[in-house]
Write a structure and sequence with these properties.
Layout lengths: L1 H15 L3 H22 L60 H7 L9 H11 L2 H11 L3 H11 L8 H5 L20 H6 L14 H19 L2 H10 L1 H13 L13 H18 L17 E5 L4 E2 H8 L3 H7 L7 E2 L6 E5 H13 L7 E5 L6 H8 L3 H8 L5 E3 L4 E5 L10 H6 L4 E3 L3 E7 L6 H7 L4 H8 L12 E7 L1 H9 L4 H5 L1 H17 L1 H7 L3
Antiparallel strand pairs: 1-4, 2-3, 5-7, 6-8, 9-10
Helix pairs in contact: 1-2, 4-12, 6-9, 9-10, 10-11, 10-12, 13-14, 13-15, 16-17, 19-20
Length: 542
Amino acid sequence: MEERFSMNSCIAPALARLRGGARRLALTLALPAVLAGCASTVSVTPPVPPGTVTTPSAVPSTDQAVVGRAPVRLSSDVPLSELTVAPMDAPAVATLAAPADLWERIRRGLAMNNLDDELVRQHEQWYLSRPDYIQRMTERSSRYLFHIVEEIEVRGMPMELALLPFIESAFNPQAVSSARAAGMWQFMPATGASFDLKQNAFRDDRRDVLASTRAALDYLEQLHGRFGDWHLALAAYNWGQGNVNRAITRNQRAGLPTGYADLNMPAETRHYVPKLQAVKNIVAHPERYAATLPDIGNHPFFDLVSVERDMDVALIARLAEVEESDFRALNPSLKQPLVMAAGTPNVLLPWDNAVIFQRNLKLYDGPLASWTAWVVPTTMTVAQAAKHAGVSEAELRKANAIPPRMRLRAGSSLIVPRNGKLDRDVPAHVADNGMLSLQPEVTTRRVVVKARKGETVSRLASRYGVSAASVAQWNRLSAGSTLKTGQRVTLHLPQRAKATTSARSTKPVKPRATSSKTASSKKPTIKKSSTAKAPSKKTARQ
């Protein structure tokens, strides 16, 4: 008994310092030792009536012992009772093994309800019949997929969303639809702007890997919060949340279910989630479909590198020892040969090359940029702008993608070579808001007119819609001169009549011939396009 108390006095202080699960675990581990000590030294007997003789055979078993009586020490020839260990149900422990690759990590996070219908099987067959397409698409995704998976895990969203760019753009950040949806996540211009994706003359953040992924997941979270269902959220991402909301309202009024499969929606949206389900099935069980997925390691592909000064794209690629095409694949938002530090302070480089770039940049002592930006002060021709910037017209057109027969409006931002006059980093307000605004060049025809009685240069100019200064310049007169009756005056007038005719010859001529049919056929088309605007933009980009 003294031994038991001695043991308790050792254990009790330690147990007092433990709390919760740790205390329960300590008790569990210590209990067999305590029991073993008790079994080997003491046993507790029930009350013994007066006059009763106690013999070893009368000693009760331990399961009949009664606490509270004086212990009796066993003689050395009494066998010890066998100790047993009670079963304990431990909670399941999650595996600590890291995923073998990124595909396995994606599989562990799949959480959406599955669709299982004919459309899913149809799209499974479509993908499986094109193994080369799957290979190209999945290899292209290897640059971006790790980052997307990381962002989805941080937000606690279902991992199916990491596969959505397969459906949207085949993981091509340069993809553009006929309706101007752009990037891996295919943002329309207005939707992109509402999620702070800059779109200007120098960059388009709808194509940016980091910015577009952030915006897409923000948008999907917003849609899921509104509809409370991931399939409906995906339908809204494709079709527009207003359209999905109206479809749900129609079903509610008709007493019909309002799930994804129950709504009346365009064909593309009807196929949208089944497409994603088909890709999910192939990724989840490639062996079942005899599909081969390229190895994608569960580690970052790229690293973020700060750019403190404007730098040429070609120079960054050279210092990082990568091909310029590979650099642009990671930085697809850049439109120009220049990275403007004020607008794009960070760029992406392959993981190992980021270290190489920083090392080589420290050793480099040459010029960082051969380009800058210039804001056109007044409306002018491309030739005039090229002369001002000290570059050939052809080079200026190529650098800024200016089409022929167009003039530059005042305030347009151009990328131009650096020279003595234009030799500075681009300021933030230009880097973030630079726009290229164009207007058609006006062609003129030379005509000779006769002045009326008492007409002045100013009145004649007003009659023909030109400036008095121009009339005076063309005829070597002063703007305030009075003209003689019948005096011949040379004018250069816009070819408005000719331009109008040529413009009408392409489109309006045919509708005039069938005006009644055209008018009647256009009305339903206009109504339909207004309600199905989002799907029409998506179809072209698949």
